[in-house]
Amino acid sequence: MSDFTENFIPEPERYEFRAAPIHQFELARRDFFKLLGAGIVVFAVAKQSRAMQETTPSRAFHNEELPKEISSWLHVGEDGTVTGFTGKAEIGQNIRTSLAQTVADELRVPIETVRMVMADTALTPFDAGTFGSRTTPTMTPQFRRVASAARDLLIEVAAKEWNVAPEGLVAANAKVTDPASGRSLRYAELARGKTLAQNLPVEDPVTPAPEWTIAGKPVPKVDAREFVTGKHQYTPDFRPAGLLHGKVLRPPSFGATLDSYDDSAAKALPGVIVVREGDFVGAAAPTVHEAQAALDAIHAQWKEVPQISNKELFAFLKKNGESKPDDRSRKQKGSVEEALKNAAHRLDATYTVAFIAHAPLEPRAAVAQWSDGKLTVWTGTQRPFAVRDELAAVFHVPETSVRVIVPDTGSAYGGKHTGDAALEAARLARAAGRPVKLVWTREEEFTWAYFRPAGVIEIKSAIAVDGTLTAWEFHNYNSGTSGIETPYVVPNQQTEFHSVPQILRSGSYRGLAATANHFARETHMDVLARTARMDALEFRLKNLSDPRMRAVLEAAAKSFGWPHKKSREGQGFGIAAGYEKGSYVATCVEVAVDRSSGAVRVVRVVEAFECGAIVNPDGLRNQVVGAIIQGLGGALFEAIEFENGRIKNPHFASYRVPRFRDVPQIESVLLDRKDIPSAGAGETPIMALAPAIGSAIFDATGVRLNALPMVPNGLQRT
Amino acid sequence: MAKPIEFEVNGKRYSVQYPPDTPLLSVLRDELGLTGSKYGCGEGQCGACTVLISGVPKRSCMIPVSTVAGKPITTIEGLEKDGRLHPVQQAFLDAGAFQCAYCTSGMIMSSVGLLQGNPKPTDPEIIQFMQGNICRCGTHPRVIEAIRHAARITQEPRS
């Protein structure tokens, strides 16, 4: 990116939860072999200098903390089984497979012999969390390095065994071979009876992408059969002996506090445990039905507080946005004021985005079990170590007394950074003296989780007669800083984020604010292109220098057939692009609008995506297509409605999510840049869809839509 | 205590004592330990809990257990026979038609129901039938591909 970007120090993304403090891994080294059996272990140890550099607030928009000290390790067992350990969680993004591929590739073993132990605070190294598209850029290289070191170690063992120099030996197919004599030893044989451990610095050389054999290929999901047979156990599927089911009494509105309380009738019910701690009220019983009956028998009165409602939302955000001239969230270059004054064409506009819900199909859930003062919790979270620390703090026990295990989880999309259900289940389990399972209902999930923040974005801009951008002033109120910087070349710029006191509980969402910021910027770019009487693609290319962004735009346009001629009434085409988290996206969209009914249908989407060297093209395609489909909801119809601290549409019947009928024809064009380190891909593919749809709707109808969602009730007549 | 309710799941007879309005899904998961059927909404809106009742796909979260007395029920656990996957399971596997896979059991059960009633569905028929199953990861195109594939392999004579 430009020097301008590098010199800009913005406020860290407020909606990406901050990482937990530094922890060393507690398990003593000698315990590894007790736990794993004999063999060879390699630890990746981040060098202090590098760790320091990466954890100091950087000159980037995101301040995601990276793993410290020991960050991953690998064990080669006596039976040849290879086990990789990481604190990252599998939430549907397919990293269990992509990490196993990486290990298999670098260690030169079949992928079937690799298993990954993930997101278990007792077994895996500390990890700040599975978010920010960080697994592929940070964890994949670490596993390459540990696997490479393990391979070297196995070669050394073989060399010693044969009394030859290690340099001539070859590792392949889970064997070390001596080409001179033709003899070979399997890894399993080399590991037998050994207890070798090695630390390595993270800078060891690894196999370059063009030479990958298992990585870079469309390897199927490693445990796919578990899922098609229903055997995989998600958190809600755990059933330890003596299990009770928990329920929590929810207040009628956000911020309400208990005014009066009587649980005598509930406590009289057989087999029921009722817990009240402050404003927390919950019950545990042998069945969910009985737990609910206990809650129903509680007489509770709540004191409510006034709240902002939907209809005042955007005015509130605009009015309460903070503006501090020296704020780190503000950047300036050239003189916007001057450039706006001398503009050939000036264009100002305001855009808004609604609160939306993640609605992961597996709701927040936890199973908690106390035993001898120690707590074990199974829960679907993106941040197991942070949840462990939170549990330890709340229950006043050492962190070593809490174990958080994350079974592969029924999705998150940024929505499972917290440990709400874990805390609730642990509270009830402690009182009950038995394991307690707590699964949020869909209504609880829609109400008591957190939301993607709403926002208002204002843009002032100017272009020269020939379509060159001359001024760009961009203000984001509340929604966040991700993707706030323009990738286009503009000599005079001002960008500012205005924080606003929280209205609804807000947090990370796939792509964070990048979706909102790209919607505003790319919609605005479409209007500017029309103002300059230029094609939308041509206008963008004219104002772009970044070759990777140009490449995705050109690839999407080529596959889509841009510019496309309209062949029927109501047909329209749009294009948009963006850059975020090390990857690039460009999206072309065709819509069909029925002006009489107002029905808007996305007919076709072509999306080009580039994230460096592709680790698994099949998994990547799933992520890209999935992001497009999920993005349809936020673009077209998803919005949380709220009034007086209550969510008015907390059900799938009233909160519309994309379904089969909404799905367009989708083509993903994956650009594999083997010369560029792999970046993550879970988020960026969602960003350019909404503005491309909006521009296509304008192309079809002449109606410009500046609010997300764009057509919750169809296209209104104007 | 409530009167025992008898029914058959995956060819096995069960007798349970539950309040008659208890959702079948709770009985399957909490009493019988058949956790392959998922809770997604409890409101019949997402399809994650889909099972076959007398061969017809139903949202088990909306079915009071008392109404299935004497009826045969098939859950995701009942599709595999002698270690051999049902053609629909195989088709989902081949198509990689899942991401987090929490919706997969329900998707597969709905697809089995669809193909039993309509062995060669057109794409619009597939979309219409599957409209009640939510996938939040956006794997719909692969689910459609898997159903087409399952229809093909079901047509072929078994070796």
Would you mind describing this structure in some detail?
The complex is a heterodimer of chains A (718) and B (159). Chain A is of the alpha+beta class and 718 residues long. Chain A folds into 3 domains: 3-219, Aldehyde oxidase/xanthine dehydrogenase, molybdopterin binding domain (Aldehyde Oxidoreductase, domain 4); 235-304 and 364-439, Aldehyde oxidase/xanthine dehydrogenase, molybdopterin binding domain (Aldehyde Oxidoreductase, domain 4, 2-Layer Sandwich), CATH 3.30.365.10; 321-356 and 451-708, Aldehyde Oxidoreductase, domain 4. Chain A contains 19 helices and 29 strands. In chain A, the strands form 7 sheets. Chain A has a 7-stranded mixed β-sheet, sandwiched between helices. Chain A has a 6-stranded mixed β-sheet with strand order 14-22-21-20-15-29. The longest helix of chain A has 28 residues, at 135-162. The two termini of chain A are 41 Å apart. Mean pLDDT of chain A is 91; it is low at 1-15, 17-26 and 47-68. Chain B has 2 domains: 5-76, Roll (Ubiquitin-like (UB roll)); 87-155, DNA polymerase, domain 1, CATH 1.10.150. Chains A and B meet through α7 and α18 of A and α1, α2, α3, α4 and α5 of B.
What's the short story on this structure?
With 718 residues, chain A is of the alpha+beta class. Chain A has 19 helices and 29 strands.
- The top-level CATH class of the largest domain in chain B is Alpha Beta
What is the count of distinct domains of chain B? 2
Strand fraction of chain B: 5-15%
Give start-end ranges of low-pLDDT stretches of chain B. none
Number of helices of chain B: 5
Oligomer: heterodimer
Could you report the average pLDDT of chain B, rounded to the nearest whole number? 95
- State the helix count of chain A: 19
Helix content of chain B: 25-40%
What is the makeup of the main sheet of chain B?
5 strands, mixed
Query: How large is the radius of gyration of chain A?
Result: 27 Å
The CATH superfamily of the largest domain in chain B is known as Beta-grasp domain
